[in-house]
């Protein structure tokens, strides 16, 4: 081989490597938030009629009928047969006075599903979730959800454009010191209740935007509390947000050893659900799984109508700089603990990582993000819970929620009282053998 041909082959190999690396990174790696660019849209009025509103309701009804998992739970727990109310709901929607009235009426109808993850989306929520899903790798189903929000009708409805995205990024992803944003102080309450004996970290929300602001304060607090005998983590009133908050910002920096739980997801074979089913490791032989499971018969009767299931282990490993906490952890909960906060409560209960104190939680925390679809006429977007999450022991999280180890009546009502006046704090102290 002459030198010229050899050099040409080297150039070709290097070129293929560069091209391959580019496509690999583009497909499998997170995307850069600063590179979002949306084309300008021509101004266009909606000018919708009663017929348009009814068509959008019927479209939403069909999507939920084929994809939503909790209709039977709603019947059992709340006595609402949502699917049977189709004509009543359609008539109610037909009387919408304008787009805003339609939005409100749809939200009331969706409210009868009695699931906090199933509702119409507001503009702030759309911008927030779009930035999260856009930056997901292209091979992720979450990135595909961003394409739903990029539809022209949806963008017009929510004023989703480069200017609104830039303002959002500057507000929540700037490199300013966390102390410059009041949300930091408002989200966390960090106290030493009894020196060296009882520490307290209260977290109001696991919202994605709080992760950036809370990171340093959480880490500093954990270092200060690492030799305390008891640590309280208070999530009463926490409606959830991003699971990364409690998994990576909190637990990984606390634990001294790995913890894990096994959960199950059950899904219907709806067209929107396929976005996840086609990307995951789902099995279609639900009946065979249920035959071999130890779930009680009532649970099996609910799950038998699902088309797919999968199982997965949720692990938490100590970070390299974890405080390797050796004391006892107490998690304070109430009925408003929901979504990713519920996932945290369920994880702590199932793994034995913490002792739960308070009242029964709100549920719907096992699984993944709600899915999103858009309405063809109005351009509004709706989210819904797509999977039925079940613990290893067969507890349906949306139905059963998480029961605390130490029950304290009305635990959530006293969260703003002084520690000495909170029965929940006193219950922790009694269990830990402490006194004020």
Topology, number of strands: 12
Percent of residues in helical segments? 40-55%
Q: Specify the structural class.
A: alpha/beta
Low-confidence stretches: 17-25, 176-184
The largest sheet is: 6 strands, mixed
Estimated radius of gyration: 24 Å
First-last Cα distance = 86 Å
Strand portion, in percent? 5-15%
Q: Helix-strand pattern, N to C?
A: HHHHHEHHHHHEEHEHEHHHEEHEEEEHEH
Shape annotation? globular
- Order of the strands making up the biggest sheet: 2-3-4-7-8-12
Chain-averaged pLDDT:
90
Total of DSSP H or I helical runs spanning 4+ residues: 18
From the structure above, extract its key features.
alpha/beta, 44% helix
Show the helix and strand layout:
Elements: H1 3-28, H2 50-67, H3 71-78, H4 86-94, H5 99-111, E1 119-120, H6 123-134, H7 141-149, H8 152-158, H9 162-172, H10 182-187, E2 188-194, E3 198-203, H11 208-225, E4 230-234, H12 243-250, E5 259-267, H13 274-277, H14 286-292, H15 297-303, E6 308-316, E7 328-333, H16 339-351, E8 355-358, E9 371-374, E10 381-384, E11 388-391, H17 397-400, E12 406-407, H18 423-432
Parallel strand pairs: 3-4, 4-7, 7-8, 8-12
Antiparallel strand pairs: 1-10, 2-3, 5-6, 5-11, 9-10
Question: What would a concise description of this structure say?
Answer:
The chain has 436 residues and is of the alpha/beta class.
